[in-house]
Structures
1.
Amino acid sequence: MAEPVIRSILLDIEGTTCPVSFVASVLFPYARERLASYLETNQGDPEVQALLAATQAAFAADPNPEVQALGQGSPIPGQQQLPAGETQSPLVAYLQWLIDHDIKFPALKELQGRIWASGYANGDLVAPLFNEVSPTLQCWHQDGYQLAAYSSGSVAAQQLLYRHNQDGNLEGLFSHWFDTQIGSKQATASYSAIAAVLQLEPAEILFVSDALAELEAASAVGMAVRFSDREGNPARDAGPFMAIKSLADIELP
């Protein structure tokens, strides 16, 4: 029986098409520093009010001792402190704590996306894609492969990154975008759901990621997978999967 033909390429972003350092060292600090001013400027926006209400509910229910200390106005060891005489709302401090601990809270992701949108629009932010990403994506698109992105960052944040990078607007090369709304990236059910949306058999999809647990979940439902082994990635163990140093290393029929 013939091997299934790959028809769609599903790509992780951080550590796969863009350096991990851009997210951790540029995007997160950019949003963190501007949270207070953004919320003050947009406090009358009903959508922002709804995001803050969701954050307040999570803040009140969070059992973490550090979070409880924030609610009481106590400083947290290791957290950046404000200059003497300056104050900050506990809610902003909680959002910053979530950023510092890389917690995937939906309301925070939405607020970060809004702040990043402004930064991309005014030129503060330009995404540094790996050098081969743009020509490889364009080649795959021209050859008829369906391109999709799957990241823990929101769909809006994914689209901003591909719209504002050193190689120009690449957003139109992608037909589908997935974030954790479809499920955890470590859950096999997420990849079955993605295959259903793409209207393909899992074996017709190639998933590329730098996270071994994600590849294991995708492989378990029958997807072809490749491990992205980039310099600077925190994990370099490909497990039983084929590793690549560049998207250009991927051989497709």
Note: The chain has two domains: 8-18+127-249, 24-121.
2.
Amino acid sequence: MIPHHGTPEWRRLPSVVTEDLDRICERVGSAMDRIADKRVLITGAGGTIASYLLHTLLHLQRRGRRAPEIVAVVRNPIAARRRFLYTVTERLDRKIHWVQQDLRQSDTWEGSADYYVHAASPASPRAFLADPLGTAAVNTSATDRLLARAAARGVEAFLFFSSSEVYGDMGPGEIFVSEDRTGVIDPLSPRSIYPESKRMGEAICAAWHRCNNLPTRIARIFHTYGPGIHLQDERVFADFTARALRNEEIVLRSDGRGRRAFCYLADTVAGLLTILLRGADGHAYNVGNRHGILSIRELADLVAGLAPEPDVRVRLDPDPDRPESASAAVFPDTAKLEQLGWKAEVAPRDGFARTLESFREMAE
């Protein structure tokens, strides 16, 4: 594990994030008590969604409740710590144990945990196209190694971060897809390495559950945005946000007609914790906002209208070589997760306003 070097210098927590974390804790409610004083292992803990989940677990202590001990597995602990949004005292910082590990290659950590959250994986097209073999490894062989460790040492739940991209091509038109349906993915397409490896990761989780009764749960995450997103990420919600913050023209590399379901980060994290603590073993759940559907042009106009400066323009400049997502017309049917007491609460207009405000506060 990475040693502590005294009290770290942390940035002030934006009020938007404080409100988000309070609301997440309220929504998940008494189920959070199951995780108090336990140990939670989070791989890919420096990622946007995983780090917000980590923030939420630490926030329990700020709310006067018992926070779990967290094992944060990251490739670069220094970068992960610098990226944190939280204001953390030395006492609270000691709830986090940073483990430097590249899961694409090996897993040498020798500890145990009560809950596993396997979130490590490239998610943006730029990242997984640049490292297709590493993407496959972290979603498949690394998943199998972690499941074997969880089975050998006992675990209360194992949550695998999957993706809406596992649904593939569902045919022409638009569809709200439930967890019992899948479409077609061309395995020879360069872009297929991400959804195909996520599919295989899900299959490995299901096999460990069937063969060893391991309590595995799967979250199929749809487009998620919010405070702390990587502004260098090439996905449209990050690119548009970055340009708006810089008061730059928002450029669309497509015709802008493609539609996506956009889910605010706090809604996604509340859903993930609900699955981890209340979900059924061996099951997959969609996590997304079925009411948050916008075309890419509508999203660009929305973000431009929320920009700190009033003169941000939107321009169409289609790139004919830009690869399209296989899930371009797939939206989440979240009935299964809603049966556990969860629902998406934040509309895109409010969510993107909160996202821009969080970056403004952090810049002060």
Note: Residues 193-212 form the longest helix (20 residues).
